[in-house]
Amino acid sequence: MALHPMQASNVDRGLLLQRxxxxxxxxxxxxxxxxxxxxxxxxxxxxxPTKWHLAHVTxxxxxxxxxxxxxxxxxxxxxxxxxxxxxxxxxxxxxARPKRGMVTRPSLAQIMEYRLYxxxxxxxxxxxxxxxxxxxxxFLAEIGTHHExxxxxxxxxxxxxxxxxxxxxxxxxxxxPEMRVNAPALEWVNFAEGIYEIGHDTLKADAGYAFDNxxxxxxxxxxxxxxxxxxxxxxxxxxxxxxxxxxxxxxWLSEGWxxxxxxxxxxxxxxxxxxxxxxxxxxxxWLPLNLAEPVTHINFYEAQAYALWAGARLPTExxxxxxxxxxxxxxxxxxxxxxxxxxxxxxxxxxSKLLQMIGEVWEWTLSSYAPYPNFAPLEGVVGExxxxxxxxxxxxxxxxxVTPAQHIRITYRNFFPTAIDWQFTGIRLARNV
Length: 433
Description:
Helix content is about 30%, strand content about 10%. It is of the alpha+beta class. The strands form four sheets. It has a four-stranded mixed β-sheet, covered by helices on one side. The protein has a three-stranded antiparallel β-sheet with strand order 1-4-12, with helices on one face. A three-stranded antiparallel β-sheet has the order 5-6-7, with no helix packed on it. It contains nine helices and twelve strands. Helix 2 packs parallel to helix 4 (about 110-125).
């Protein structure tokens, strides 16, 4: 049977082991500031404990590579196969997602032992270039490293939500006081109508890695449109709030208006007013709200309402990708701050006024998460990775301040339901011309 166009590794096999080790080591770096108790918390059904993330990504390598292709391999613990399967029905039953925080045993130390056990055998199989299934192993290992990078981002967003519920000012990583700078004035960048191509080119040998939902590359027609030069700031969003944005039902989708009433929402997630001043919870703890920073942790309803109030709209994902065409991986801001940066002119491209297109906040689009023309999921159980979620979700683009830099690309299609806000989600405006 012929391989799916994406079922071939784009990583040099000599570098694949190095990449594997780098990604696995980075997960351990992310856990260093956390206690065992921190790693156990599950603060709501949509999040998962840090301990679960560490085990699940290890389960992926074990289940799809070691069990299938390493002769004589024995699982460290057969019960892990059930506990750490996320949603792969083809791999067997799964432990209920909302109850992952109840799995206090195995301990964090046992999960660390599990990671080392799997790493030992993964390094053996990745080093075996003469394995009869070397190409398939490389393909699955590459998926596995990108899968782990997704969970590195989730680990940070999930632990942020958990620590924010602490009665004390819980800090993941402290941050030195920063000089306040102003965001550049918002400008509108014009894009002409015409036929464009979007999506990952699955048939191009040097196109780099992508998930199956990013292709195939295809043509689309776009009308004339404008895109805002940067994302919406806290100051701009605060003006929307002070103008009664959360009280004006004309601005809100029906479901969004119900969301506000049901959740008593009056401001973005992680905002809190104290003694007349706004504060925001960050991975560096509670800090005074920086008005120049991009507004973040905004759900789709809030993004849509703000856009309508501002006399604009959200972009479609095709408009976003066409506009972002000149941005590359080297444009991703330096990680480690784990919070969006104030827009700077130096973030733009020589031939464009666009700023912050990648690596600050995931930007909501108007596009429902649906398959591209001629989309086909990967063969086998790994084909459950993306395609089966193409329902009741919207696409977000651009990556965030907690997305690993090597994991960001302009064709990346993130997707979430309309009400989520624990991710670093934000707003970029668009307008018809």
